[in-house]
Amino acid sequence: MIVFGGSELLLLLCLALASYIQATTGFAFGLIVMATVTALGLAPIDVTALLVGALTLVNAAATLRGGRWRDANWRALGLMLATCLPVTFVGLELLSYTSEGQLGLLKGTLGLCLIGSSLLMMYRVTQLEKPSSVPAFAFCGVLAGLMGGLFAVFGPPATFMMYRQPDRIAAIRATLICFFSVMSALRLVAVLWTEPVGESFVGLALLGAPVVMFAAVAARRFPPPLSNQALRRFAFGLLLLSGISLTLKGFF
Length: 252
Prior knowledge:
Elements: H1 6-25, H2 29-39, H3 45-64, H4 74-96, H5 100-123, H6 134-151, H7 155-162, H8 169-194, H9 199-221, H10 228-251
Helix pairs in contact: 1-2, 1-8, 1-9, 2-3, 3-8, 3-9, 4-6, 4-8, 5-10, 6-7, 7-8
InterPro entries: TM_pro_TauE-like, TSUP
Protein name: Probable membrane transporter protein
Membrane topology: Multi-pass membrane protein
């Protein structure tokens, strides 16, 4: 049930911020919403996770409208999805055989690796001279699928890979948004197929959809005054936050 007042306003601000950053960088919507909404107790975790999936599609529709989806690197997108989609189910299967203690250790270790790589990339924003090879993108999709199946976190491998490509920021952003849209739609369909839709989810989705759309449109019209290098550092800074979050959840 939605609580009107301060909680409602805070929820809308979280969604607006996450949508603006997602439209700008191509990722981080789920990270920001899950971290802020859950930490502040604005909605249950399961409802928030479902909300992220639904509103990611809203953000994508607003961000990529007008043909901006054509900017995507289709080679990279296809290669990552080809391995990510099936391996996601492998990750889910592994999750069913993993104890709570082992899962915490895996999350913590993953978080530490992500922190190290993010710090390195923030200070040495290395953009490749040539596109990565087919095996590299396929391996990225495998990692994303495993992380998505085990931890519901698809973003770090794909973001790390795409921000190193010799592409324009518009192409990187479009590729990542398309990637997360497909994975969010898959997860949303899987959950809704097996679980009834609660009133909380419907209410929050109806409340948040126009806010997410407005923030995404605002990001297109009023982008942050950052250079490509600064935007790459900002993206890896968000990955650093993701690593810290995983580490804290895993070890504490």
